[in-house]
From TrEMBL:
Highest taxon above the source species: Eukaryota
Lineage: Eukaryota, Viridiplantae, Streptophyta, Embryophyta, Tracheophyta
Coiled coil (UniProt feature): none
Keyword Flavoprotein: no
Identification of the protein by name: Fe2OG dioxygenase domain-containing protein
One function term, GO molecular function aspect: metal ion binding
Pfam families: 2OG-FeII_Oxy, DIOX_N
InterPro entries per UniProt: DIOX_N, IPNS-like_FE2OG_OXY, IPNS-like_sf, Oxoglu/Fe-dep_dioxygenase_dom, Plant_2OG-oxidoreductases
Length: 324
């Protein structure tokens, strides 16, 4: 339990050595402004006759940034607020209350509180965070416990499918699992030396991210970091790596990271939506032909995560492994 940053972070004036990133990957003192450029999609417009325009905006954003934000997504504000407060209460509860869920190496626990990444023992530098993870799969099994219809992720996937020129339901088959990863980033005395989450691309199909109003998320675009504004009412969506494979590079996954700050703890919750482990991931047949041959080979979805961990931080190297 002493590995949980929140157990000791408020008692230290300096970051311990094994949390200090090397100069080339640490955030440093450079000020990264919040970019106004990450597109905002009004999901309600998709129902109001503006479907084509909404699809076009999503595809453009996915091609340019691999990221966009959705508003009017149908989840009531009080539900988002309530969810955040539950996570906050959990993360800020005494160590004693967390100990049954805690594990510092890979575990099959249904619900798991881990320090840093899932690989604490094997990482060179630890991340300034702790994470609560549990799967929400199969959806039917967990649905009834959810406060409202889950984030209209199926609608988002349908808009993406249509935008790719695929049947609207095409991606339904690849979105049968959902893993929740709630992140807690305690305030850090030297944020310039640490990372809450090091640079990475997400593994699955899409990720939906909720934030609590404290900034920290940054997206890499053309070798430049862009800050994402932490609007707690919007949902941040990002194109994950296996979707890049399915659409044969028509959309690109975006690398991102989370930085810490010295003033305030931050909470975010990522919902990773992806395929069942045994599902075959490959470029959609409808998107390949003689002129656009498949860039990737076929593989099982469950083969992806181990490769991502092998190449953590280098999403290109991970994708390279699955090239045809
Ligand atoms: C993640 C992630 C970013 C954040 O959990 O995969 O990228 O802002 N989180 O917490
Ligand atoms: Ni991520």
């Amino acid at each position: 339990m002493e590995k949980l940053v929140s157990n000791w972070s408020s008692n230290v004036g300096a970051v311990p050595e094994d949390y200090i990133y090397p100069p080339e990957t640490r955030p440093g003192n450079m000020h990264i402004p919040i970019g106004e450029s990450i597109p905002v999609i009004d999901l309600s417009q998709a129902d109001k006759g503006d479907r084509t325009l909404t699809i076009q905006k999503i595809i453009n954003a996915s091609q340019e940034f691999g990221f966009f934000k959705v508003i009017n997504h149908g989840i009531p504000e009080n539900v988002l607020k309530e969810a955040m407060s539950v996570w906050k209460e959990f993360f800020e509860s005494p160590a004693e209350a967390k100990k049954d869920l805690y594990a510092d190496s890979f575990t099959m626990k249904d619900c798991w509180l881990s320090p840093s990444s899932l690989n604490y023992g094997r990482e060179k530098v630890h991340m300034w965070r702790e994470g609560l993870r549990h799967s929400c799969h199969p959806l039917q099994k967990w649905h009834h416990m959810w406060p409202q219809t889950p984030p209209r992720y199926q609608e988002i996937l349908r808009l993406i499918s249509e935008g790719l020129g695929l049947n609207g339901e095409f991606l339904d088959e690849y979105s049968q699992t959902m893993v929740l990863s709630a992140n807690y980033y305690p305030a850090c005395p030297q944020p310039e030396l640490t990372l809450g989450v090091a640079k990475h691309a997400d593994p699955s199909i899409i990720t939906l991210l909720l934030q609590d109003g404290v900034s920290g998320l940054q997206v890499l675009k053309d070798d430049t970091w862009i800050g994402v504004d932490p609007n707690p009412h919007a949902i941040v969506v990002n194109i994950a790596s296996q979707l890049q494979v399915i659409c044969n590079d028509k959309l690109k996954t975006a690398e991102h990271r989370a930085v810490t700050n010295s003033r305030k703890a931050r909470i975010s919750a990522a919902f990773f939506i992806g395929a069942l482990g045994e599902s075959i991931i490959e470029p959609a047949k409808a998107l390949v032909d003689e002129l656009r041959p498949p860039i990737y080979k076929s593989f099982k979805s469950k083969e992806f995560l181990p490769k991502l961990y092998e190449n953590y931080g280098d999403s290109q190297a991970t994708l390279e492994f699955f090239k045809a």
